[in-house]
């Protein structure tokens, strides 16, 4: 349409409501109707609305109502959560502030069998409208590991071990030693130690093995006291594990996601036991013990179908030998003991192996025309006798546990 011709003809050009302020257009529509110069049908065409909409706003105006949009929310809802039930859900969240809607839904359902609880999404909505949800800080995501966990088919097939950092407890530092079962996610131990040195960690593991038996394998990082830079990456602790017939798995340096199940538990441990920390090491251990009971016997786990770790875990049938530090049984294989400085003496020659293996019994196998040095079920390398010396070539290779 030509604008000049329209103005000359005295026609008023209007725009649809959706391109202007809806409130001002509604008032203008009513004002023009009250002037009595235009029919309702003509006004509806000019404002580009339906006659049904035009009559609606005129009816509201004459009824003394505001010309604003009304809420479409129903006055009542048959699916609304009862006030008492919402208060019970809020109370349970306040008692367990770090538990999400899935876990609390499963716990309340288990404690009240047959109860009609709202959906998990409704639980989340209740948390949000009652101010019980903190916005999550965005973190950079770690890409998936190229070497994920292997299949763990039963409890005690693999234990995961680590230290959850350290923090101040009174006048000392606390180093939480944590052990979990990879299959059931069962928190086997959480021990408050004063340091990460080998002796107290070994004493802690003696108590753990005595209570839960021996696993087939233990996975750890490459830090002390689990590993060292000596032959085979052995430390005094991991050498002892090998003597007990426990395979030691170490994650790749800088890839904590390869122990991801254990690291995820550490996040929950930190949230619920260290903010704030206790006033003494003994008090902190009591906090760890309460958390361990809650984690194993009360807290549902999403990866377990919202069941508890205690529903899947049982102790190992492999018992800690007596004494726990006795030598590995090599059968009829030739054996020699490493001296106090880490040297092997054999056939009137000697060669340095490792200070970590001082006083340990090792085996020498003759296979494929080569002498092989073995500690427990771990092949350390090859022995090459020369005229006046003995050479050792490190060649670490795990051997069968059978």
Overall description:
The chain has 402 residues and is of the alpha+beta class. The chain has four domains: 60 residues, no CATH class; 47 residues; 153 residues, Ribonuclease H-like superfamily/Ribonuclease H (Nucleotidyltransferase, domain 5), CATH 3.30.420.10; 65 residues, no CATH class. It contains eleven helices and 13 strands. Strands 1, 2, 3, 4, 5 and 6 form a six-stranded mixed sheet that branches. β11 and β12 form a beta hairpin. α2 packs antiparallel against α3. The protein starts with a helix and ends with a strand. 24% of the residues are buried. The N terminus is likely disordered.
Quick recap:
Helices cover 32% and strands 19% of the residues. It contains 11 helices and 13 strands. The protein is elongated and about 125 Å long.
Uncertain runs are: 1-15, 140-149
CATH architecture of the largest domain: 2-Layer Sandwich
* CATH-defined fold name of the largest domain: Nucleotidyltransferase, domain 5
Separate helix tally? 11
CATH superfamily of the largest domain: Ribonuclease H-like superfamily/Ribonuclease H
| The CATH top-level class label of the largest domain | Alpha Beta
Give the CA-based shape.
elongated
Distance between the termini: 93 Å
